[in-house]
Amino acid sequence: MVRFPRDDNRVPITGGVASGDGVTPTPIEVDAITGELLVKDANINKLLGLTTGQWDKVTLTQATLTDTYSFELASVPTKVITITYTDSGKGTISTVVLTNA
C-alpha cells in the first residue's frame, strides 16, 4: 500500500501513483492562482470515457470523509469523481465512484 507524507496537522498529502508501476507515490499539481487540479487530459479522458483534449473547468470540493472532483466541458455532461475515505485522516480510500452530474 502506498503511504503519503502528512502535513503539520497529520493530514495526509493527496497524491497518486505512477502509471508505470502503479505503486510509486506521485504528487498531484494544483494551479497556484485558481487552486484547480492540474491533470493530464489523456489519463482523465480514459477514466471518464471521453476523447476530448481539454476540460473547461476542474474543481475539487473537500469534506471530512470525501473529496469530490468535477470535470466540466460544455459539450458533454459534467463528470464527477467522488472519493470516500475510511476515516477523517484520509489515509485509506473506501470507494471511488464516477457519476454524471
How would you explain this protein's 3D organization?
This protein is mainly beta. The protein is 8% helix and 42% strand. It is built from 1 helix and 8 strands. The protein is globular and about 40 Å long.
Instruction: Report the C-alpha radius of gyration, rounded.
Output: 14 Å
Name the average pLDDT: 76
Give a count of the beta strands, DSSP E runs of length 2 or more. Answer: 8
- Contiguous runs where pLDDT drops below 50 for at least 5 residues: none
- Number of helical elements: 1
Largest sheet: 4 strands, antiparallel
Helices and strands, in order, run as EEEEHEEEE
**How much strand content do the residues show?**
35-45%
Structural class: mainly beta
Described by the principal axes of the CA atoms, the overall outline is: globular
* Helical proportion, percent range: under 10%
Distance between the termini: 31 Å
TL;DR of this structure?
By secondary structure, the chain is mainly β. It is built from one helix and eight strands, in the order E-E-E-E-H-E-E-E-E.
Comma- or semicolon-separated keywords:
4-stranded antiparallel beta sheet; mainly beta; two-stranded antiparallel ribbon; single chain; about 100 residues
Map the helices and strands:
Layout (H helix, E strand, L loop, with lengths): L14 E3 L7 E3 L1 E2 L6 E2 L2 H8 L8 E6 L3 E8 L2 E10 L7 E8 L1
Antiparallel strand pairs: 1-2, 3-4, 5-6, 6-7, 7-8
